[in-house]
Amino acid sequence: MITKSRLKVRSSRALKHQIAMAGLTTKELAESVDITASYASTIINGKANPAPTTALKIAVKLSERLNKNMGVNDIFFDVTVKKNTTLNSIEIEEVS
């Protein structure tokens, strides 16, 4: 069984507000964390679940710009994806 951790945006609306308050556009945020603007947009809108490293980069960038101590858990929650390699099924469960 393979376990792959992904993170989901807690609130798209709150994240959009934080990005605006940080004075960033989606494109600027994307460039600063080394992802495409398109991928950043899908993360922000809750349609994609970034890897922990990407989520951490986003949290760090927003923390720097907002002069706030924000962690990954302030923006994202953990979704663990387990894939059974023999059955090729995926189970998603929220991890607290």
UniProtKB/TrEMBL annotation:
UniProt xrefs under InterPro entries: Cro/C1-type_HTH (IPR001387), Lambda_DNA-bd_dom_sf (IPR010982)
Coiled-coil portions: none
Highest taxon listed in the record's lineage: Bacteria
Annotated HTH cro/C1-type domain residues: 15-69
Protein name, UniProt field: Helix-turn-helix transcriptional regulator
